[in-house]
């Protein structure tokens, strides 16, 4: 049986939910059912990928040359497999933990679904035009979510986030244009499978290759909050409503890393090696500078924002490691970080919703009052620190081993990152969860998570973190042949 | 025989007929003038899709030509006409209600002029066609006599239009002095293989300035914001889309493929066009950012769009010309619905200030969604139709190696997002404290705006359609045909 239809189905189901909600269906229930149903095509497609390594939907490449070569082709291989699963899980839990009864509920859930749709589409696209397009679909819903339902300086955060992401996207676009036009006219294609094969056989000239790789690094880097293009991230995530922060930090940010793996690494390998030292400097900036900055945070959501941006540095280390182990580690850490960031922002959202504050000074003694919330807070913090058994540890250790032979100094820097992140997180946990109960926590009406209805999103994320942490092979196993191909000179 | 049914003749007849009906027919029929005007324009639009409609009378053939470019742009102008007539029939004329018939009949005349312009192959024809357009537009801009701003707009357009015509005529005179002919193809032949003739260069510069006024390119842009703001909204739409497109057709004809496309002249003007484009795109974008009046905002945004198109033309390639053709269609599809929405907004609230949008996202979800999609399309965001054309501009600049222009275009495309997100922010974010007025949009607007939004999305995902249009416009290349003769 041909299961190719499952790929468009993954995009159509959320789209149908958007239309239904717009027409007046109950927002949360519809969105939730859509994200549950999406596991059916997701599961079927993954089955095929597990067995045969690849699943494609869309027109086969025709030799006829068209002026505008974009074709709507969806595909899933071992690399997109884990990204799609991450997206499905985070959409499900973000919608599951979203509040009902807020203002403009309809638009709220539509925006959340559209962010998820954009991410899924980007991870499934084989054609670079649609790859880029789907990512941009998420831009405006993010702007609206932060601006309409955010906290604190929501207007400033929304503008900063949108302008940075747009700037990153445009630089990325110029890089992609450059890549496309650098090819000889007969070999031009936007299909990354064709592109990668062409460029492996006939690499670009060194100068143009370095230029394109640099543009891609800046473009994708701005989307991933690589220093010095990071300043949108902490504030944006701190201001965003919890489900939006979960989706953005958990999933959408991985678009940039995924893009680097898909495009920059296999298509401009020499250019990527050429600018490797710049990437090294920048990622050290991510780890040390943002790590130190995260020590100074007084607001738990800002702390999470900084720590989320900081961990991107470690993933970049995996990307420049030049070994399959390092890349596999980067992929595992992408998944692990996605899950743990989603869990962290969900917990932060619950804490500030229940106590009315996310200032660590005003919190304290949460462990006594709300033991369940405390438990998930600990899981999120431990995952972020890199406790063995949780997904982030598996990713980090693979990156360290993979990068040791090529970049020993940077591995040392990244190890300091683990220390910094441990200090920041443990201090946060102490301030929030232990000590005497603060006024905000003691106040009447502060309640724990109630029953399965409120805990399941947290439980799902925790379970996923444990599964990937104990058996990271579920992530890098199917991706391994793809990653090996990325490194073939 | 079929030449008598050419679009220009039908348009003129329709315009005259509407004026006659409006002044002579009994009251019962007179009340139906808006419907008649709309039907007439739709009928002519439908007819324009048949190639027979573009057959010209044989006696015109040394001034006009029927080629791919005119085939692509005559329906463009007629589509503008249909939407402008639709808007004009709903525009609130207040004290001038009695003359609505004329308001509906007048747009037919500049449209006839634009259709002529689209096929012009001689500067004399260009001049006559442009005057027909300009004079009708002076009247239309000042039509809302009860409103001082409208009169001011009319005067400004008249003065600046006169200045522009002056540049153009001066240029044509120099051209005749320098090359001895005003016909595009003969110019091309007489200049081919020679070095640049200084008289021709002066002529080309003057003509460029004349066209610069039409497309509102910096430094000839100063009239646009005031005139756009003061004119009745349907006229603003006409100026913003049809009149601007006419300027670009001229640019394509004379600088892209025609008279001044030769190596000697073209290479001289390449840096000039690029500088003009950089200045236009920068000023348009930056000046649009703080605007609070929607029509003014669109005026500056239109300047920015003109800048992008000039940059594409400045690369001097076939790709650049095709890009401009596709860009104009994308611009039409995004900006006319926006202006339609503004027209209805003005009808309800009496002004086009952005504060009337406050909380619109909640009050009118359908039209607001369509409006937002069209605005985002103008911003050039995927998956909307504005994206592939902006992509094409950037790609052309890259392949021409114009790095400074490319950098400016990228920065301005990012800054431009701010222009179009501002109304969206007002519609969706702002407090909804202002008592929700009982005044509601008419139901048809929901469907029109949603359809427009979906069309923008669909074409954004299927840009091949625009590419084919652009290819058609250059096929056969009018120059090649001219050389063959």
Describe this structure in words.
- The complex is a heterodimer of chains A (489) and B (485).
- By secondary structure, chain A is mainly α.
- Chain A has a domain at 275-489.
- Chain A has 24 helices and 2 strands.
- Chain A has helices at residues 6-22, 27-37, 39-52, 78-97, 105-124, 128-137, 139-149, 154-182, 192-201, 206-223, 232-239, 242-252, 254-267, 269-274, 276-295, 300-320, 324-355, 366-369, 371-385, 391-404, 408-433, 439-442, 451-470, 473-487, and strands at 54-57, 74-77.
- Chain A has a two-stranded antiparallel sheet with strand order 1-2.
- In chain A, α4 packs across α24 (473-487) and α15 (276-295) runs parallel beside α21.
- The two termini of chain A are 36 Å apart.
- By secondary structure, chain B is mainly α.
- Chain B has one domain (2-484).
- Helix content of chain B is 75%, strand content 0%.
- Chain B has helices at residues 7-24, 27-30, 33-48, 68-90, 100-105, 108-119, 123-141, 148-179, 184-191, 198-215, 223-230, 233-257, 263-288, 294-314, 318-349, 360-363, 365-379, 386-399, 403-428, 443-461, 464-473, 478-484.
- In chain B, α4 runs antiparallel to α6 and α17 runs antiparallel to α19.
- The radius of gyration of chain B is 22 Å and the shape is globular.
- Mean pLDDT of chain B is 89; it is low at 480-485.
- Classes of the chains: A mainly alpha (489), B mainly alpha (485).
- The A-B interface holds A 22, 66-68, 70, 72, 104, 107, 132-134, 136-137, 139-140, 143-144, 147-148, 155, 159, 162-163, 166-167, 170-171, 173-174, 177-178, 180-181 and B 322, 361-362, 365, 372, 376, 381-383, 387-388, 391, 394-395, 398-399, 406, 410, 413-414, 417-418, 421, 424-425, 428-429, 460-461, 463-464, 467, 471.
């Amino acid at each position: 049986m041909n299961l190719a239809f499952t790929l468009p189905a993954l995009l159509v189901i959320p789209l149908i939910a958007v239309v239904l909600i717009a027409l007046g269906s109950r927002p949360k229930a519809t969105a939730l059912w859509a994200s549950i149903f999406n596991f059916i095509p997701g599961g079927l497609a993954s089955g095929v990928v597990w067995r045969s390594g690849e699943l494609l939907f869309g027109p086969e490449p025709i030799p006829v040359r068209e002026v505008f070569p974009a074709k709507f082709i969806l595909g899933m291989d071992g690399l997109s497999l884990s990204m799609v699963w991450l997206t499905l899980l985070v959409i499900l839990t973000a919608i599951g933990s979203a509040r009902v009864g807020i203002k403009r509920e309809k638009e709220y859930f539509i925006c959340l679904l559209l962010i998820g749709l954009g991410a899924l589409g980007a991870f499934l696209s084989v054609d670079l035009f649609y790859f880029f397009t789907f990512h941009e679909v998420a831009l405006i819903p993010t702007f609206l979510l932060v601006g309409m339902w955010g906290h604190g300086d929501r207007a400033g955060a929304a503008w900063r986030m949108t302008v940075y992401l747009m700037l990153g996207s445009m630089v990325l676009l110029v890089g992609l244009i450059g890549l496309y036009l650098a090819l000889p006219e007969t070999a031009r294609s936007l299909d990354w499978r064709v592109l990668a094969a062409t460029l492996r056989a006939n690499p670009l000239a060194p100068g143009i290759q370095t230029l394109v790789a640099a543009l891609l690094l800046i473009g994708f880097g701005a989307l991933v909050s690589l220093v010095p293009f990071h300043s949108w991230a902490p504030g944006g995530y701190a201001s965003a409503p919890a489900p939006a922060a979960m989706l953005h930090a958990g999933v959408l940010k991985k678009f940039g890393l995924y893009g680097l793996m898909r495009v920059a690494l296999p298509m401009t390998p020499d250019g990527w090696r050429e600018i490797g030292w710049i990437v090294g400097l920048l990622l050290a900036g991510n780890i040390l500078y943002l790590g130190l900055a995260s020590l100074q945070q007084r607001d738990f959501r800002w702390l999470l924002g900084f720590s989320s941006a900081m961990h991107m540095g470690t993933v970049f280390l995996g990307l420049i490691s030049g070994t399959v182990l390092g890349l596999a580690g980067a992929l595992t850490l992408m998944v692990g970080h996605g899950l743990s960031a989603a869990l962290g922002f969900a917990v932060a959202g619950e804490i500030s919703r229940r106590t009315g504050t996310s200032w660590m000074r005003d919190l304290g003694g949460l462990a006594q009052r709300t033991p369940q919330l405390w438990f998930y807070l600990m899981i999120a913090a431990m995952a972020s620190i890199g406790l063995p058994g949780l997904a982030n540890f598996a990713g980090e250790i693979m990156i360290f081993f993979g990068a040791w032979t090529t970049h020993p100094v940077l591995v040392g820097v990244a190890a300091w990152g683990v220390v910094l992140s441990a200090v920041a997180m443990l201090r946060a946990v102490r301030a929030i969860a232990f000590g005497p109960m603060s006024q905000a926590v003691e106040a009447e009406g502060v309640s724990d998570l109630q029953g399965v209805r409120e805990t399941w999103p947290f439980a799902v994320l925790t379970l996923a973190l444990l599964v990937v942490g104990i058996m990271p092979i579920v992530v890098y196993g199917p991706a391994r042949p793809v990653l090996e191909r990325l490194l073939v000179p | 025989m079929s030449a008598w049914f050419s679009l220009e003749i039908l348009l003129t007849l329709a315009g005259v007929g509407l004026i006659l009906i409006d002044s002579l027919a009994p009251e019962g029929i007179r009340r139906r003038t808006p419907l008649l005007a709309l039907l007439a324009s739709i009928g002519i639009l439908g007819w324009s899709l048949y190639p027979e409609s573009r057959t010209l009378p044989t006696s015109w053939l040394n001034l006009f030509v029927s080629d791919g470019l005119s085939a692509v742009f005559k329906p463009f102008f007629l589509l503008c006409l249909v939407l402008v007539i639709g808007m004009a029939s709903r525009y609130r004329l207040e004290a001038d209600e009695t003359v609505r018939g004329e308001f509906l009949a007048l747009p037919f005349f500049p449209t006839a002029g634009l259709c002529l312009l689209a096929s012009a192959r001689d500067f004399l024809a260009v001049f006559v066609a442009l005057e027909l357009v300009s004079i009708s537009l002076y009247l239309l801009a000042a039509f809302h006599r009860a409103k001082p701003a409208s009169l001011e707009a009319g005067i400004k357009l008249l003065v600046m239009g006169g200045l522009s015509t002056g540049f153009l005529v001066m240029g044509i005179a120099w051209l005749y002095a320098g090359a001895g002919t005003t016909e595009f193809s003969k110019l091309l032949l007489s200049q081919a293989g020679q070095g640049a003739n200084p008289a021709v260069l002066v002529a080309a510069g003057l003509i460029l300035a004349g066209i610069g006024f039409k497309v509102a390119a910096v430094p000839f842009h100063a009239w646009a914001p005031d005139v756009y703001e003061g004119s009745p909204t349907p006229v603003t739409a006409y100026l913003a889309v049809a009149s601007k497109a006419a300027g670009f057709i001229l640019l394509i004809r004379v600088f892209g493929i025609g008279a001044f496309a030769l190596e000697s002249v073209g290479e001289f003007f390449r840096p000039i066009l690029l500088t003009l484009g950089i200045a236009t795109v920068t000023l348009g974008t930056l000046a649009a950012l703080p605007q609070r009046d929607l029509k003014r905002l669109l005026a500056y945004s239109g300047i920015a769009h003109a800048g992008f198109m000039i940059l594409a033309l400045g690369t001097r390639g076939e790709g650049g010309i095709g890009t401009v053709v596709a860009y104009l269609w994308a611009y039409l599809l995004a900006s006319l619905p926006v202006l339609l929405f503004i027209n209805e907004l003005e009808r309800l609230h009496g002004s086009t200030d952005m504060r009337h949008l406050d909380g619109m996202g909640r009050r009118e979800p359908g039209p607001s969604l369509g409006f937002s999609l069209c605005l985002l399309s103008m911003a050039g965001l995927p998956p909307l139709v504005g994206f592939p054309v902006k992509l094409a501009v950037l790609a052309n600049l890259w392949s021409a190696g114009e790095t400074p222009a490319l950098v400016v275009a990228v920065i301005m495309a990012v800054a431009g997002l701010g222009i179009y997100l501002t109304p969206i922010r007002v519609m969706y974010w702002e407090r909804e404290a202002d008592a929700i007025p009982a005044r509601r949009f008419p139901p048809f607007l929901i469907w029109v705006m949603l359809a427009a939004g979906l069309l923008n999305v669909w074409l954004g995902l299927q840009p091949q359609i625009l590419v084919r249009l652009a290819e058609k416009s250059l096929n056969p290349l009018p120059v090649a045909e001219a050389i063959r003769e």
